[in-house]
Amino acid sequence: MARESVNKVVLAYSGGLDTSVILTWLQEEYDCEVVTFTADIGQGEEVEPARAKAEAAGIKEIYIEDLREEFVRDFVYPMFRANAIYEGEYLLGTSIARPLIAKRLVEIASETGADTISHGATGKGNDQVRFEINALALRPDIKIIAPWREWVLLSREKLMAYAAEHGVPVEQKRDGTKSPYSMDANLLHISYEGYDLEDPWVEPGSGMWRWTRDPVDAPNTPQEIELTYRAGDITAIDGKPMSPAEVLAELNRIGGEHGIGRADIVENRYVGMKSRGCYETPGGTIMLKAHRAMESLTLDREAAHLKDELMPRYATLIYNGYWFSPERMMLQAAIDESQRVVNGQVRLKLYKGNVLVVGRQSDSDSLFDESIATFEDDAGAYDQSDATGFIKLNALRLRVAGRRRGR
Amino acid sequence: MARESVNKVVLAYSGGLDTSVILTWLQEEYDCEVVTFTADIGQGEEVEPARAKAEAAGIKEIYIEDLREEFVRDFVYPMFRANAIYEGEYLLGTSIARPLIAKRLVEIASETGADTISHGATGKGNDQVRFEINALALRPDIKIIAPWREWVLLSREKLMAYAAEHGVPVEQKRDGTKSPYSMDANLLHISYEGYDLEDPWVEPGSGMWRWTRDPVDAPNTPQEIELTYRAGDITAIDGKPMSPAEVLAELNRIGGEHGIGRADIVENRYVGMKSRGCYETPGGTIMLKAHRAMESLTLDREAAHLKDELMPRYATLIYNGYWFSPERMMLQAAIDESQRVVNGQVRLKLYKGNVLVVGRQSDSDSLFDESIATFEDDAGAYDQSDATGFIKLNALRLRVAGRRRGR
Amino acid sequence: MARESVNKVVLAYSGGLDTSVILTWLQEEYDCEVVTFTADIGQGEEVEPARAKAEAAGIKEIYIEDLREEFVRDFVYPMFRANAIYEGEYLLGTSIARPLIAKRLVEIASETGADTISHGATGKGNDQVRFEINALALRPDIKIIAPWREWVLLSREKLMAYAAEHGVPVEQKRDGTKSPYSMDANLLHISYEGYDLEDPWVEPGSGMWRWTRDPVDAPNTPQEIELTYRAGDITAIDGKPMSPAEVLAELNRIGGEHGIGRADIVENRYVGMKSRGCYETPGGTIMLKAHRAMESLTLDREAAHLKDELMPRYATLIYNGYWFSPERMMLQAAIDESQRVVNGQVRLKLYKGNVLVVGRQSDSDSLFDESIATFEDDAGAYDQSDATGFIKLNALRLRVAGRRRGR
Amino acid sequence: MARESVNKVVLAYSGGLDTSVILTWLQEEYDCEVVTFTADIGQGEEVEPARAKAEAAGIKEIYIEDLREEFVRDFVYPMFRANAIYEGEYLLGTSIARPLIAKRLVEIASETGADTISHGATGKGNDQVRFEINALALRPDIKIIAPWREWVLLSREKLMAYAAEHGVPVEQKRDGTKSPYSMDANLLHISYEGYDLEDPWVEPGSGMWRWTRDPVDAPNTPQEIELTYRAGDITAIDGKPMSPAEVLAELNRIGGEHGIGRADIVENRYVGMKSRGCYETPGGTIMLKAHRAMESLTLDREAAHLKDELMPRYATLIYNGYWFSPERMMLQAAIDESQRVVNGQVRLKLYKGNVLVVGRQSDSDSLFDESIATFEDDAGAYDQSDATGFIKLNALRLRVAGRRRGR
């Protein structure tokens, strides 16, 4: 099939085997210049080695960027204000990183005069959708090459053969082993798919998990931490001010130590299939629990309930790749409007996989009024007889119905 | 103030101090016959002692009933089909028991020719609302006496004085101590309010918890269990068929042993205030996690997402006391419609407060299709090029907007 | 491109030019047997002429069916129980007919041993999606041929040329003219697209409309009608019992006479573009207004509000082609649960495009209680002082917030 | 019953009989100073006469204010951005005026050192709730006197007797008649309740309606108007720039002439009963139809659908009295976020009760793309084959389910 003509391609380039093959393949098949873009979003691997590889492949425009602060500040933090969780279990670790990559790809395309972007996501997954819809929302005329949907190298074997034939370097992991899982990582999480996870009745081998200790091996003594919130975002841990990326890195460290944030789930992909995934999200798991606790003290009841009802849709939008859509922005406006009062501290106890809330306070914004809630005499702060009218009028519609229908 | 005239009152009677004082107070203030109703809904205390006390107070019509199976089968199970959770944390243990009590109160009123019911819930809480709205929905002409909203005995001291003055027996607990907390229990949970919980920054004393071990003291070895689902309900544990109440009792036992199901939360009451509550829901916590896992394999994506969006409202309806309302029945109809396919087994690992899903299967209804989801060559089960059209049309509206608005 | 091999195709065949060309094209391109299926769903054109045309084309298995009762009873009526309206304006006239056609196509495929179905919907519209998703939901292995997406005859000129070349008969309309609009009709509505409608600032020519009088030319005297409802469905007009299809035909007749049910809208297609459409839905417009009036008297407030909140999603599901989906069935279960009490009569005044409700009553199920609602003395049916407690507790959360935040 | 002690009361004072009696009654019963507040919100009656009456009653602090612009700009316009409509029929004319009155009452209380406000709404209606919840949200310590819930003058007869006894002047209408209906009016609408409306089967007498012509008597020739929108608000009529209140007044005038905006409905009050009300909302009816048309051209599909799903809740919040609540502000933030692009013109035809959209355009923000939507050859703007992948992946979940479940 004749290839569409492209002038220059910006490739989301990790430096690993897959995107190295794609790099060569793009050069050969499309006979065009390639710009590589490699971002540090906290995946825990060096990004600088990608430079030498790109240079070796003859690339002239090489972008290597540390996006960790932008990632947490502009993507992870807004999402956690919503208490977003997909299908009751998944903290959207992969989903939330894609719009940032898509944004930088099209920005770099504009900077370098490229008309095309490319990525290494497969044709079965959600990531292709997230990359492409977000990119098209930001720059509607961008062309996209998704090699996995075009080529014939649909097995690892064929990919290795192509690499050998075209001189693409294939490295061994330093320890000589290679994980059998398909993995993705960023500052929010690491994910595992494929291999023995393809049977949802089978528990994955304990060697799979990389970021968290097995709860059985975690410390036998609980650890307490205190988080400080300002407008719904964490600004300090144990009283020490930190930037967003510092907060998340530190919570990952502590949470991982205590075996927090493992999830083993079957999820529904946007492209229509169910898939099994395992995730480690230590910091995010702590953040979700703590944010809810901070809100429980400071947020109005109906504001909180409205957030709870909007959340599943908000989470699905992010999962499906609609970060840069008007409907996500509408929901974000509603959520952010609610967060001005979410200020204070939360104390947590971390222990062998558990995140336990043991205290929450807010000098400026607590709506907990002991004088009203007390079981002791409240000196008139609340008039119990008000409840009679409250109940009678709330029941009125049901009483009328009962009378009419002969109950 | 002159009392309204009543002919006979059915009292929700626990046999404890509060309802014993109410019993005497009703006889004195209203000069009417009282029928006592004491139910075993799994609160873990003997109900038969209530008979002797009622007889001693001169009661002629005494109802003592074991409602455990009806409670779990007709209230707890339907609620768990919805994955109901209030404000992200509360499993509605108290809320779900009230409609059953309200139902029996008005049924007994009809059987005994009583025109009035009475209960011992305070004027600040949710339970008065739940008792009364549910009762009025079922029998719109029923009169209700809520002594806590009427009388002047609004402190423990005054209550004790009244008891002493009117010869109401005040027992000591067998161990000579009395919990300083206000508690409620049934087969689904036990709750704690008041005392040191009135400061939300303070962690409750470790002696408060009664049903679960402290995770620190729980077994050092994980335990695996397998639950069997049929139409969304658990019908067997480790292959052994059990009735609904047996299932819940057994899961409480196992979960409690492993320190599962403690929650310490600030919640928003229907009457408008925030309150702090601690809950132990060992079996329910296992059930929620397992049910979600069973659904993840068998439920259609959009059915699951619709359930997630409806859930917060469904939970709020139960929390607020609207079990016997048309809107709850509408939501239940939608939820139950989805559950016919929720059949199969879930394997769980229980360990020191953690409920970990390690496997799920469904011979009849699994929608997990390995041939499609696989990372290996799928032999044509899924055509990756379909994703191109899928993405392009899903992005079309955003591309048009981008073009028009000069992005 | 080589065609996929098919053994036999069931074609949704109107007998018009487009599907006649498709019929020939299928025979030629796929070299397979074709079964024709022509349904009377109230489009107002004879279906029998399709038989002769199909026979002339050499078709051996010809299905011609009157589906009007099934269409209204099983599709239109359930939809109107929901008060479904898409984007505030569109009564889903085309959308609701597609699942029935899809259902019969796959049923006929099973009866005749065909492995494929085909239809004449274009690649830009919603109808292709509705046909195909509903068909695939009912028979997942069915093959589908959508000629408009495959062939090169993408203009009217080319189509005519193909017809001429292959001897497909091209009839003139009896009056020698042909509408310049793309139209679709069934018992619920007739629609117009294309031609001068492609500029949304331009009003269509008055000659476009076919089913309704121009309100300016409608009778100068209002007409009253009375509709009888049973469980949410109309069972009689002016006291005369009628079948569902009879009801809709009669309301179309009366409504059309009074210029009722024209709509001129810009709508959002599922495939991502905006399009302009004009619709005449005389009977449906009356039904929507009347059903809401019947519900206003008989439906509980919260049930009605829940329906209103679920409606947009329900309407979108039908618009997008998900009638036979589990999520539509869940919503239908909730809606139908609410309709048992929707019984009674509604009186309407029809006048020059207006549908005015002038009365509603329900002997069995009215929840309107004059003794409570009256502005006169109600003899104690309602205690106004109850409102004080009702307001105070509903405002409590806002008062606490105001105090804390120094308002 | 002993009255609560108050120092000074701000009374919402119309100058009519009811609030004049209340004025005297407050002076007598509470023995306190009264401040009167009379606002012109477009009810169509002179407000200055209230000054002389208040002076005659000995009032020293008299507030008479023209709030028409604030009313439309800050309350009506934001509400119409949401396309708010309660229970499918009611345009919230009364509901939206109450928060403004409540706001001014508490502001005047602060200015004059008053600790109390008072109003003339009855104990059965929604208005008491709207006044009081909004006032308490703004000033949580304000005391409220609602005479209709306190006194014994619960019939018109007793009220007249009180007036006569205390020298409260009772005027006749200029034409010597008095409407038998309970009415309320402001720039958005006029409402009617009571009298023959108390039987929902009875059509009100034609003499009831005051603002609109009977459609039968409206002009025989349609009138066209063009509305200009900027960020979702109307800024000009027929090209002539106008202020918000001018726009609404002019649309009322034109709409009333053409018999537009009558509604006769049974609605569900927040206090639990159903009531019958008739409304004339000529300008608002035009605004709702036109705003939807403007959005249909300029708003993204998913933004529009999200608005449709949020709308019923938003409308209910306003109906129930929660304008100054955090949840209304959250929804408003989401709605307003969507409106920046709602710019352009809408052309309407008004005729005997009908509001017909005949054109819409937007130079800056139209998302209608003729090159894509055309039925003619689109020169490649849209690739029809994309639809194949779109449909196949959207149907994938249903196909998998169908295969597994043996359909």
UniProtKB/TrEMBL annotation, chains A, B, C, D:
Its EC number is 6.3.4.5. The keyword Coiled coil does not apply. L-aspartate binds at T122, N126, D127. L-citrulline binds at Y90, S95, N126, R130, S182, S191, E267, Y279. Its main location: cytoplasm. Signal peptide: none annotated. It catalyses: L-citrulline + L-aspartate + ATP = 2-(N(omega)-L-arginino)succinate + AMP + diphosphate + H(+). GO terms for cellular component: cytoplasm. Pfam families: Arginosuc_syn_C, Arginosuc_synth. ATP binds at A12, Y13, S14, G15, G16, L17, D18, T19, S20, A39, G120. The keyword Oxidoreductase does not apply. Residues 8-169 form the Arginosuccinate synthase-like N-terminal domain. Pathway: Amino-acid biosynthesis; L-arginine biosynthesis; L-arginine from L-ornithine and carbamoyl phosphate: step 2/3. Residues 181-400 form the Arginosuccinate synthase C-terminal domain. GO terms for biological process: argininosuccinate metabolic process; L-arginine biosynthetic process; urea cycle. Keywords: Amino-acid biosynthesis, Arginine biosynthesis, ATP-binding, Cytoplasm, Ligase, Nucleotide-binding. GO terms for molecular function: argininosuccinate synthase activity; ATP binding. It is an enzyme of class 6 (ligase). It is found in: Cytoplasm. PANTHER family: ARGININOSUCCINATE SYNTHASE. Belongs to the argininosuccinate synthase family. Type 1 subfamily. Homotetramer. NCBIfam families: argG, PRK00509.1. This is Argininosuccinate synthase. It comes from Lamprobacter modestohalophilus. The lineage of its organism: Bacteria, Pseudomonadati, Pseudomonadota, Gammaproteobacteria, Chromatiales. The gene is argG.
